[in-house]
Amino acid sequence: MISKAKKMKRYLPLYLMFLPGAIYLLINNYIPMAGLVVAFKKYNIRQGIFGSAWAGLKNFEFLFATPDAWVVTRNTILYNLVFIVLNTVLGILFAIFICDTLNKKLRKMYQSAILFPFLMSAVILSYIVYAFLSQSTGIANNSILPALGLDPVKWYSEAKYWPFILVFVNTWKGIGYGCLIYIAGINGIDLAYYEAAKLDGATKWQQIKCITIPSLAPTVITLTLMSVGRIFYSDFGLFYQVPRNSGMIYSTTNVIDTYVYRGLMEQSNVGMSAAAGFYQSVVGFALVLTANFIVKKFSKENALF
Amino acid sequence: MREKPFSRFQILANTSMIVWTIIVILPFILLFMSSITDENTLVANGYSFIPGKIAADAYVYIIKAGDKILKAYGVSILVTFVGTILNVLLSALMAYPLSIKNLPGRKFLNFFVFFTMLFNGGIVPSYLMWTGVFHIKDTLFAQLLPNLLLSAWNVMMIRTYFTTSIPDSLYEAAEIDGASQTKIFLSIVMPLGKPILVTMGTFAGLSYWNDWTNGLYYIVRNRDLYNVQNLLNQMVSNIQYLSTSTSSNVTSAASNIPSTAIQMAIAFVAILPIMLIFPTFQKYYSKGLTMGGVKG
Amino acid sequence: MKKKVVSLLLVAAMIMTMLAGCGKDSGSTDTGSSDDGDGSVTKTEIGEYTEEDPYHLVFSYVEFYEQDDDARAAVQDAINAKMIPEYHIEVELLPLQYADYQSTIQLMLSGGDDLDVMPIFYTFASSWINMGGIYDMAEFMDTEEGKAIVEALGEENANVGSMNGVLYGFPANKESVELGGLCMRADVCDELGLTEKYGLEANKDAYDGTYYDWSVAEEIFAAVKAARPEMTPLYMYNSDQLVRFKFFDELVDGFGVLDWEADHASTKVVNKFETETYKEAVTMLADWYDKGYIFEDAATDTQGTASMMKAGNTFSYLTAIKPGFLAEAEAANGGKCYAMYFGDHKEGGLSTTNVSFFNTGISANSQDPEMAFKFVSALYADAELMNLWQNGIEDTNYKVLEDGTAFFVEGEDGSNYAYHQNTGWFMGNQFNSYVWNDGSKSADYWTLLQSHNDWAEYSPAFGFMWDSTDYSTEVTALQNALETYRAALHTGSVGLDKVDETIQKLNDALYAAGLQDVMDAKQEQLDKWLAEQK
């Protein structure tokens, strides 16, 4: 055993390294968190966040009291689950494809291709989607569907198409994130493993199955756990701008964030928006603790904390 | 890699990626084409890959507003550059201790970082904090400091990479050599972590480049500090609000706002620098940093 | 490791105290503006303002048209060259973006930022009052400045911006009644003989009591459709344009309304979406949509009328019409247009929100509401201030023509001007400023515009403001329920065969969201208010 002083000396630099970031998180995240208390208050500017009168759970009622609440909760969770699975599977697949592309120029091109959609803001993206799906002037109705001998579709009034459209758009826009991380992960794998596998006559598939995927597992677990924590949140731009706020398709496009936005758009209620955030966080927190607990059972070192 | 260029796998990989690349690029082409389409044609016939009637009006408009856009570019570039460097540095510094398996209190520290991803107090308390205590309102710091300087998400990803891709044996060897933690961080962790640091740096850079919320909340009086996204957002969100108002006076104000083609042009102009810079930047992603290389 | 945690907590606690202290600071300055009337305390502490030491006043407003930053700064200097000696007020112009205006004001209010005079959009009034963000101006109404406002707006309009006795804002002086109809392409009208048939004339947009039934519009659309099949007879977009067909006193949020069309004098709060009036309108729209008269993408489109008209494949759109409308419309649409009034009644309904759509009020953050009120009053009473703010500096930004109207200086026009707010309908008293001569207006334009209001018939609930604070939960749910069906019903895109079913679904959703409670509460507040008025 090392003595306490020695231990301290050994670890002190590490704590110091941690410190600047920690201070930032304190300032930027932890202290403003005190504002969560607004969720339980009848907010009054003059009395301030802490001085305002308590409102009990009144601010939370709108999240549960309505028939829509169930629909938006279901939509939020289902979309997020699909996003998590799809982005992981396709992300890894594309990462493997890209890393193993022999032609350097092509590899660069692919890498750019998965990243560029990140640059498209939600509003512009909604124009582009509209360019394809608009009823009167859309490319889908004017060129693609007639070419296939199909009838025009009223895209923005048919809820059934939107799960596919939104999943596609989200993949289009978001796949680059996980993919680039997996590329970094694959680049971090010691080439010696592959050399050895090849000497043993392993096929490409076997190499992927036995080397690449296991090496990426911790990254996948971290990413998934973090996504689970945000499962009650959703990309507002994707669900509000892209469907162009079309009411007829709310049954498949309304999520918690858009529900809250629409409800509070004409009011200005700080308490209720804080309540929505609090609710989303608490559920995410509970889920992530559970998920982390399960991960811990199977592989201790891959748990988040 | 020592593989035949035309193996089944290569063909599968390349075909899939080429298809995906086309899927990605098409909307960008559409975006560009709309920006050079005559406005009236655009409204009447909709967006098209082959513009019915070409017009450079949108770009003339942008050039006329040149001063404003140049300033916004200046802000975007400066903030993205400084912000990314600080972000990567802070994240790496924070992630390294978290990746040390036997660091006392590691679990708590991990939790400390992770927790910030779940809960946030909302904009009002953040605003009070940043403007009341740090007085960043209407300064360049407003674009730099809130929210973007460090993301717990990035720290966790970097931590995971450090844990899995840097073998413990390297640390042990270094410690036996009597290397200090600073030395280990600089000579082992940073070089070996390059793939993830470059990746997370890219994302941090993109968040800075794409951000418009900081400008929205914290820049009220000094519009010279708007970045490119603030300019774009100002136009497109205004047009949505104005044109759909129920007040006839408000909707008539909307008729004065830049057209669809101009919005497309500005969106394109906002994207262009990154599209140009990124490919030249890509060599840092490339392989070559193998364990063997460092060990040797 | 405990130590580490402890020290972190210490840092946190330290910063917390800092933050709390800061909050307290802004809190204590605010006490001067609390509504129990101790505003004078602040006054004596700060002392009288002088020309050398004027009161610094932040005036926020929405800039609907883009202005040159340098020109605005010059205008601000010019305003101060006048305001400092005359009022001992140094004005800081704080232009906001329409899209972000709510979030900016809300943050500034919460953050205790310097903010004196601000625009208040009617839907936010209730929540801002209830969160203590707005200063009650009632106490100033007996002063000289208060009387000047009443003189400019009239007793009734000066008090319309009040809720539960709190006077939160003054409306802009403008034509408030929204009479409306169609704005149509002149060339097509000429071609189809509509011009002759309905006596349409260029630049004829003042209302003289001539109006048509909507069935006439349908005939026109049919004629257009037959003669020009490639043209959309009526452009509609994703905004609530139902008001162009039927007038309800929406009682602010539209959940529980007065059915003015059915009975002008009724004070019974009813569910708008169950009325015959509503059903009639949406059924007609659905019929039009099915017949191909309405723009196909109406439910999702946001391009706005101007670009559609410019593009050349649209015949007409719904709009409010007033004197001077056509000149503005033609400039925006890029071609000659005719205006035609449609409706069910000769007169137009007028509700609280018609008048007080935007209001000028004082923020609770104001260091000295009394000085702020002086400025508000000046916006209504001081023509020079209004002219400076709206039109800029004479001979630099505009010139006064011989007939007493104003226009851009040489070399500037609507596309390249440096400063021209053009938002007199938004805040202050535009009737006090120069008439802007866009080619169709003369110096007596303001009289003409005011006379437009003669066609108004006041709703019995005029002046009533619904306080929805206790029903936020219900209103949130109602808003979502309405949004689900609104665009489809109000643009006709739902189609005739599904209209009844969709109205039913909408009503079911609204009642499930608590509409009855809201209506009951509204009725109670309204009855109480009506009793007070007697």
UniProtKB/TrEMBL annotation, chain A:
Residue stretches spanning the membrane: 12-31, 77-102, 114-133, 174-194, 215-233, 274-295
Membrane topology term: Multi-pass membrane protein
Pfam families associated with the record: BPD_transp_1 (PF00528)
Biological process according to GO: transmembrane transport
Transmembrane found in the keyword field: yes
Main location (coarse class): membrane
Subcellular compartments: Cell membrane
UniProt superkingdom: Bacteria
Protein name: Putative aldouronate transport system permease protein
Organism lineage string: Bacteria, Bacillati, Bacillota, Clostridia, Lachnospirales
Family stated for the protein in its record: Belongs to the binding-protein-dependent transport system permease family.
Alphabetically ordered keywords of this record: Cell membrane, Membrane, Transmembrane, Transmembrane helix, Transport
InterPro entries, alphabetized: ABC_transporter_permease, MetI-like, MetI-like_sf
An annotated GO cellular component: plasma membrane
ABC transmembrane type-1 domain segment(s): 73-291
Coiled coil: none
PANTHER family assigned: ABC TRANSPORTER PERMEASE PROTEIN, LACTOSE TRANSPORT SYSTEM PERMEASE PROTEIN LACF
Automatic annotation (TrEMBL), chain B:
A GO cellular component annotation in the UniProt record: plasma membrane
UniProt topology in membrane: Multi-pass membrane protein
Residue ranges occupied by any ABC transmembrane type-1 domain in the UniProt entry: 73-281
Segments passing through the bilayer: 12-33, 73-96, 108-128, 140-162, 183-209, 261-281
A Pfam family hit: BPD_transp_1
PROSITE patterns: ABC_TM1
Biological process, per Gene Ontology: transmembrane transport
CDD domains per UniProt: TM_PBP2
Subcellular location: Cell membrane
Keywords: Cell membrane, Membrane, Transmembrane, Transmembrane helix, Transport
Superkingdom to which the source organism belongs: Bacteria
Family: Belongs to the binding-protein-dependent transport system permease family.
Official protein name in the record: Putative aldouronate transport system permease protein
Source organism of the structure: Anaerobium acetethylicum
Automatic annotation (TrEMBL), chain C:
Signal peptide start-end: 1-20
Keywords: Signal
Source species, domain of life: Bacteria
UniProt key word Magnesium: no
Domain DUF3502, chain residue ranges per copy: 460-531
One Pfam family matching this protein: DUF3502
InterPro entries, A to Z: DUF3502
Official protein name in the record: Putative aldouronate transport system substrate-binding protein
